[in-house]
Design goal:
InterPro entries: Sel1-like (IPR006597), TPR-like_helical_dom_sf (IPR011990). By secondary structure, this protein is mainly alpha-helical. It has nine helices and no strands. The termini are far apart.
């Protein structure tokens, strides 16, 4: 009986010592990770994860999830999350839930990562078609019509520019519930894509505005010249004095 007790005590002591060693190594792995020494942290987390430590398994899953293990590997991340969650790790269980949601909302994630084209920023009240501007206007009614069309376009364009500036950067338009489902690589790609979309929209609008303003300049110069010549001719015409006071 005493012999069995000694054996049991030895086993328990061995388990306690092993747990103490793992706890120390886990802290070391966390420290390495915080110092961004990812290869070293990966090596230590892998050792502990293979030994069955659920917290190490969860951290290892996150490293594969965010690409800190060298590249994003969702399959390996899911594997380690499942192992950790099976042992009651709540963070790993939550991560598995996020992975499930990612599959269900894949189209929405891809929309912001690569498909969003900014069409909504150029529609509705921010759709500013170029006004029809003739080469010259010779009638007062037409001059007023063209002037009103130019003013309307200018107001629309100014509103478009102000709105484009207000929504910068476009990455902030990603819905929060979608952003939290993105991994680091997807979020970075989304930011670059959206920045390029905004730049393209801005440059397109600037080119269009320059063309409109060029047409406005030609029209105004020609119209003002005609009006000036017309008024000069009228001023030179003799006044009608056929009716005189007797």
């Amino acid at each position: 009986m005493k012999k069995n007790t000694k054996v049991l005590y030895g086993v328990l002591l061995g388990l306690l010592l092993a747990g103490s060693v793992h706890a120390g190594e886990l802290e070391d792995a966390k420290a390495l990770f915080e110092q961004k020494k990812y290869p070293e942290a990966l090596k230590l987390y892998t050792k502990l994860a293979n030994a069955g430590n659920p917290e190490a398994q969860q951290h290892l899953g996150q490293m594969y999830w965010y690409g800190e293990a060298g590249a994003v590997d969702e399959a390996k991340a899911q594997l380690w999350f499942q192992k950790a969650a099976g042992k009651g790790n709540k963070v790993a269980a939550a991560s598995l839930d996020i992975m499930k949601q990612r599959g269900e909302r894949r189209a929405e994630i891809d929309h912001w990562v690569s498909r969003y084209d900014g069409a909504d920023l150029k529609s509705g009240k921010f759709h500013c078609p170029a006004p029809r501007i003739p080469a010259i206007s010779k009638q007062t009614a037409e001059i007023e019509r063209v002037s009103n069309a130019i003013a309307k376009w200018q107001d629309c364009y100014n509103g478009f520019v102000n709105n484009l500036n207000a929504v910068s950067p476009l990455s902030e338009r990603i819905p929060a519930d979608i952003a939290k489902l993105m991994n680091a690589s997807e979020l970075e790609r989304a930011k670059k894509h959206l920045a390029q979309v905004q730049e393209n929209i801005s440059q397109e609008a600037k080119v269009g505005a320059k063309l409109v303003l060029a047409d406005v300049g030609v029209w105004r110069s020609a119209t003002e010249a005609y009006v000036g010549e017309h008024n000069a001719i009228i001023q030179k015409m003799p006044k009608d004095d056929s009716v005189r006071t007797k």
